[in-house]
Amino acid sequence: MSKAIFPSQLVLIVEDDQLLKMLTTDIVEEAGFVALSAENADEAVALLAARSDIAMLLTDINMPGSMDGLELAHMVRDRWPHIKIIVVSAHGEASSAVPAGSLFFHKPYKTEAMISAIDSLIDAGKPGSGGQVYLNV
User: Fold this and answer.
1) Under a CB-based contact definition with an 8 Å cutoff, are residues 21 and 63 in contact?
2) CB 38 within 8 A of CB 72
3) Calpha distance 96→46 (Å, rounded)
4) Fewer CB within 10 A of the end CB, N or C, for the chain?
5) Has residue 32 got a pLDDT over 50?
6) How far is the first Cα of the chain from the last one, in angstroms, to the nearest whole number?
7) Quick check: 59 and 72 in contact, CB under 8 A?
8) Where are the alpha helices (DSSP H) in 31-80?
9) Using CA atoms, how far apart are residues 16 and 32, in angstroms rounded to an integer?
10) pTM for this structure?
11) Which residues are within 8 A (CB) of 59 and not within 5 positions of it... i.e. 6 or more apart?
12) DSSP three-state, residue 104
């Protein structure tokens, strides 16, 4: 049974690999959230600038374009600090470079852990939640 969807549950997925983007979209939607997608950081920034209802950025690090996913994550943290961020990569050494308050997942990630992280981060951003995120990932 899926939960009711509110505008604050919009997740922007930035992934250039079509299969991974489809799989991640399925995970996000299975968790009861609405997924938007972009192929690179430039598309993501255009969506973020045009919409005020995006609650979370879920981005891969390695992708073509003017910036990689880490640069995008840091830009989002600076420009849109209310947006929660999850960074994913097959290269674990990047985990220490994610913006403060963000989460890192090593590919391939477990569906249940990703759903739990999305739930926790978005719930932590709701009024009255205290902003705390507790994860065992």
Assistant:
1) no
2) no
3) 27
4) N
5) yes
6) 23
7) yes
8) 41-50, 69-79
9) 23
10) 0.83
11) 13, 14, 15, 41, 44, 69, 72, 73, 85, 86, 87, 88
12) strand
Question: Are the C-beta atoms of residues 109 and 118 closer than 8 Å to each other?
Answer: no
Structure tokens, 77: 């943290």
**Strand arrangement, sheet containing 84-89:** 34-38, 10-14, 54-60, 84-89, 103-106
DSSP structure class, residue 100: T
97-120 confidence digits (pLDDT tens): 899 889 999 888 888 999 999 888
Amino acid at 96: S
Positive or negative, the CA dihedral 106, 111, 117, 122 is positive
Q: What's the CA gap between 62 and 39, in Å, rounded?
A: 11
**pLDDT tens-digit map of 83-93:** 999 999 988 76
Domains observed in the chain? 7-109 (3.40.50.2300)
